[in-house]
């Protein structure tokens, strides 16, 4: 006897999103793992000895393939489907963490970091697009904001484990995350939007797969009969990539979103997060480095939760502008509260000589500035580009647009990681933060003038 359970639509939609979000935890773990791995490898008791050159390669190895992975992820989800692509990504993710855990030399660590970085890049486009396509308008913003929450949670979890456990055990535990995500994704349906877009190629399964998927995930309007559907949302034949670049409806969102990613990365999201621990230790020399890192991770995670609520209540554009303005102000306050105490000892080292400015409140100003920065940057600049990569592009080019824009974001991520030590060394901490603050300020003006509003709009209306 068949028993039908009356499960509210929101729970069905959140369950469909849960699998990719669990796997996204692995992306945060990939980003945060260097802070766990490198100090332990440099310990004199480590079984794997590394040089300073190898250390820099281990730190950047995961970032190298992210951009290429995001393009491949966009292509794969168009050809194979959102669900199948997310399932396949879990495989190299598990293999990458396993390779690190079982590494007997630096080469094994390189290979594992390369695989986990590639998987992080692959995961970006299909996760955002799939969640956007299986959730209703009223839940879509909060569900997409959970991507940023998952990354923040992954960073916190891996840093917490690294405080108490060895790097081999940490990487082994990290491998269970994509495995768990695979199990959840297996029981979720394919995106109904993708099934409809590919109905010509999948004519034999249109009657069963698309209809079943519509019923499995409430909130996606049922497909009307062919005679009623006189104005389909996407062309019968999808244009080629070259044809997409000749259409303003594709180029416009691509330029705006790529600029948004540039503002996000050159507001110092990763550089300030890394250097803030050093600043906090300068304020309080007795502070424990791991405790400082975990405190900042907790702030990041709490603000990510706040961002989920804010994206559900407020529009994308005002939230982006407020975030950029607040980021600009906090960076300028941070820059003005520190001064550089001379040049570093070696040309290749990072300038870690920033000390509080001589004032009565100097010791408190950098701390408050860092906290304010973590709040403002994580309520808008961090989550919104990833959210809107699944919303802004028309159906005929959603895979291509999402893949290219996130690819550009990962390229900027890598560029900032590479040039930040150079900036801190050659122009100083204060001037570097002034530059990041200026980018955020100019970005606020651009976002106010050019960023479209996609909140509470259907996927067609949002584009």
Strand and helix layout:
Elements lengths: L8 H33 L10 H10 L4 H14 L2 H20 L4 H29 L2 H28 L2 H8 L1 H11 L5 H6 L8 H11 L24 H4 L3 H18 L3 H15 L5 H25 L2 H21 L1 E3 L13 E3 L8 H17 L1 H6 L9 H29 L2 H22 L13
Helix pairs in contact: 1-5, 1-6, 1-8, 2-5, 3-4, 3-5, 3-18, 4-5, 4-7, 4-8, 5-6, 5-18, 6-14, 12-18, 12-19, 13-14, 13-16, 14-16, 15-16, 15-19, 18-19
Total number of helical segments? 19
* Classification by helices and strands: mainly alpha
Mean pLDDT: 79
How much helix is in the residues?
over 70%
Largest β sheet strand count, sense and barrel closure: 2 strands, antiparallel
Based on Cα principal axes, name the global outline: globular
Strand content: under 5%
Strand order of the largest sheet: 1-2
Distance between the termini: 45 Å
Cα Rg:
23 Å
Stretches where pLDDT is under 50 for at least 5 consecutive residues are 221-235, 341-362
H/E series: HHHHHHHHHHHHHHHEEHHHH
Description:
By secondary structure, this protein is mainly alpha-helical. It has 19 helices and two strands. A two-stranded antiparallel sheet has the order 1-2. Helix 5 crosses helix 18 (398-426), helix 12 runs parallel beside helix 18 (398-426) and helix 15 runs antiparallel to helix 16 (365-381). The longest helix has 33 residues, at 9-41.
Characteristics of this structure?
463 residues; two-stranded antiparallel sheet; 2 strands; 71% helix; globular
In short:
With 463 residues, this protein is an all-alpha fold. The protein has 19 helices and 2 strands.
